[in-house]
Structure formats: C-alpha cells, structure tokens
C-alpha cells in the first residue's frame, strides 16, 4: 500500500497499475453524505460540507458496497474525518474531511432589559443560530426564560442563556412575611421581616418580630416563608 495526500482527501491504495474502470467520485460523496446524515440526531437542523475530491483521483471501481466510517467512531458538530473503504484485490481507503454545523432555535431579546426586569413573551424572538457560535448554557425551551428575571442588564439582540436569567424575586428585604412552621402535623404562624431578597424555593434569613430570633426560612410565595423543625 502506498500513501499520498491530495487536497482535502488522504488516499491509501494499491500501487499496482490499473487498466479497468474507475470509482465514481459522486458515489463516494453520496456514501459519505448518507453515512453522516444517519449518524446525526434525527429531526435536527444541520449543514454538511464535504471536502471536494481532487479531479486527479482515480480509484479502481469497487465491486462491493463501500464501507464508510468515522475515524473517531462518531460524527458530531465540527470538523470530522470520515473514511471510505473498498475491500477486494484492488482495495483502497480514502479519508475525507466533513464539516458539520448544527443549528438550534434559540430565544433572542428584541429589546434591552434592565437588571431585575421580568422577561415576557413579547420581549422574545425565536431565531435559528449555528450552535457552535452560541454562548454556553443557551436555552431552547421557553419555560427556561419566560417570566424569569434578568440577572443583569441585557442588551437587545442577546441570545438568552441560563446565566442571564434567574427566578423572579417575590420577597424583598425589609418586607413583612408570614412565617409558617410545622411539627408533628401542627402548623404555627408568626410574623417576620425578610432580611434579604428571595425567589421561590430560595432560603433567606428572616427575623421573627415576636421572639426577635433570626431564622433560616424557605420562600414559598410573595409574603410567605416556611420553616420545618
């Protein structure tokens, strides 16, 4: 076997002279494309760019079905090396570069938001973007951003990700809250003052206005926290 590099394609083939018919480069391209598409997640949006074979490439026509494989064992977004192998007396193997782009529908702000603003549906546009160019933590489910609170100032045109949003604050520092505690099925209520802001499910410090004790309580809703003993 000898080895030589052609633009975009690495070829391994027999060094023997060949006087028969040659393998169609279009069939090679079609086999690679079919293999790549079958290896990607069904229902996704992809752009596949195959390296064009060198016009000087002349391979013996393969009498068997072409065998296509990924050099790393898998196809994923980004640059991939794919091999095509022909078995037989005049067998050969070529390697080609395949660039896969994956596209996702993401949520983009159509107006600037200030820190603590609540993000509503009318503030969002759905746009299809190259996943390889998206920020880490981007979201594709509207429930991850709808009615959430901006964690900081966000300019219009930003692709929303989990770092940009947070659960809305329902209890503000200094507000009076109803403290509910339960023990052995008995529920006791008291009035307290929140010592910090809090979102649903968040634990905050609350001062019991009767006992003056500071306790840790979980925010249940606006004006309501709970303590379990």
Model description:
With 229 residues, this protein is mostly beta strands. Helix content is 7%, strand content 43%. The chain is built from one helix and 16 strands. The chain is elongated and about 100 Å long.
Short descriptors:
mainly beta; SAF_FlgA; 229 residues; 5-stranded mixed barrel; bacterial flagellum biogenesis; disordered N terminus; elongated; flagellum; FlgA_N; 1 helix; 7-stranded antiparallel sheet; 3 domains; cilium; Type Iii Antifreeze Protein Isoform Hplc 12
- Biggest beta-sheet profile: 7 strands, antiparallel
- The shape, in one word, is elongated
> How many β-strand runs?
16
CATH class of the largest domain: Alpha Beta
* Whole-number mean pLDDT: 87
Instruction: Give me the number of helical elements.
Output: 1
CATH architecture of the largest domain: Roll
Which class do the helix and strand fractions yield?
A: mainly beta
User: Which residues sit in consecutive blocks of at least 5 with pLDDT less than 50?
Assistant: 1-9, 13-18
Q: Portion of residues in helices?
A: under 10%
Intertermini distance: 76 Å
What is the C-alpha radius of gyration, as a whole number of Å? 31 Å
State the order of secondary-structure elements, H for helix, E for strand: EEHEEEEEEEEEEEEEE
Number of domains: 3
CATH topology title of the largest domain: Thiol Ester Dehydrase, Chain A
β-sheet strand percentage: 35-45%
Main location: periplasm
Family: Belongs to the FlgA family.
Keywords: Bacterial flagellum biogenesis, Cell projection, Cilium, Flagellum, Periplasm, Signal
Signal peptide: 1-19
């Amino acid at each position: 076997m000898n080895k030589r590099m052609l633009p975009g394609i690495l070829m391994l083939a027999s060094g023997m002279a060949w006087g028969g018919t040659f393998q169609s480069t279009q069939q090679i391209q079609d086999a690679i494309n079919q293999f790549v598409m079958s290896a990607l997640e069904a229902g996704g949006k992809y752009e596949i760019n195959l390296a064009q074979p060198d016009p000087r490439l002349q391979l013996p026509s393969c009498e068997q079905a072409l065998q296509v494989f990924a050099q790393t064992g898998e196809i994923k977004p980004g640059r991939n090396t794919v091999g095509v192998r022909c078995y037989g007396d005049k067998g050969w193997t070529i390697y080609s570069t395949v660039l896969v782009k994956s596209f996702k529908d993401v949520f983009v702000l159509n107006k600037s938001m200030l820190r603590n603003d609540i993000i509503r549906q009318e503030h969002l546009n759905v746009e299809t973007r190259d996943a390889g160019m998206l920020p880490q933590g981007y979201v594709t489910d509207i429930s991850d951003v709808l009615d959430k609170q901006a964690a900081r100032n966000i300019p219009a045109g930003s692709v929303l990700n989990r770092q940009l949003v947070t659960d809305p604050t329902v209890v503000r520092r200094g507000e009076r809250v109803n403290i509910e505690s339960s023990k052995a099925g008995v529920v006791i209520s008291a009035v307290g003052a929140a010592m910090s802001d809090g979102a649903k499910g968040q634990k905050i410090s609350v001062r019991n206005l009767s006992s003056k004790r500071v306790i840790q309580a979980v925010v249940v809703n606006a004006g309501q926290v709970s303590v379990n003993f």
